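debug: dumping io for the single-chain case to check the tokenizer round-trip. Nothing else runs in this session.
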Amino acid sequence: MSECVNKENQRVAFFFKALDRMTASIERLVKSHRLPFGGEHYLTDKELSEKLKVSRRTIQDWRTEGKIAYIQLGGKTIYKVSDVEKMLMAAYHKKWK
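debug: decoded output
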């Protein structure tokens, strides 16, 4: 004999209670979530080179030439995403026609 699956079914009721608990937990997490460092995102030179499709050496040249802002802590160099966007917009050329 097959089991009838409806809202009175114990397994279905358990599933929906678990779903309600998960939803409440997610809502609490979203309300309490704060982005670290004032909402700023950072990239390593490796991540930046992959995103821009340029070599890490090119990024090093940009640093040396003062074309890109960066933060150096110890031996690690990171870049603010907002600074990278500013650099890209400064190099933006509108179409002619």
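debug: round-trip ok. The longest helix spans residues 10-32.
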